[in-house]
Amino acid sequence: MNDVDLLNDSRVIQQFCVPEDYASLREAAHILARAYTDFDYEKSIEFEQIVAGKSEAYARMKASIFSDPTKRKEQQERFKEALKSLLESDAALNLVPRQERYPLLKVRELILELQNPTDPNSTK
Q1: Which are the contacts of 103, defined by CB distance < 8 A and separation ≥ 6?
Q2: How far apart are CA 9 and CA 118, in angstroms?
Q3: CB neighbour list of residue 51: distance below 8 Å, 6 or more residues apart
Q4: Buried (b) or exposed (e) across 21-49, using 16+ Cβ within 10 A?
Q5: Are the C-beta atoms of 29 and 124 separated by less than 8 Å?
Q6: What does pTM read for this prediction?
Q7: Which of 1, 54, 95, 100 could form a disulfide with 5 if both were Cys (CB 3.0 to 4.6 A apart)?
């Protein structure tokens, strides 16, 4: 079982949102899990910008550096931290391919629309 699977347990999910928002929270969690699992720094906008206008040899050298397991793990951790800050920062948006920005923006939208079950004044 992974963390996303925990959201299928109503005892867990009710701590984060009201029943009307369960589907939105689950959708956001699945998008984040998929983004994290599929993360590949060499396909990111940031990496594209690093090698833009450079020689093919330079691009290959940079790709080789970032394919090192240690560097790959560092970038994965950096992406995880960026995902944690998705509501306050756009950092994660530059660490994914251009076509993957929309799902992360969708997560931001879904989370901002959630009602807080512990705050009686919380509304959409």
Answers
A1: 31, 34, 35
A2: 18
A3: 58, 59, 62, 63
A4: bbebbbebbebbeebeeebbbbebeebee
A5: no
A6: 0.83
A7: 1
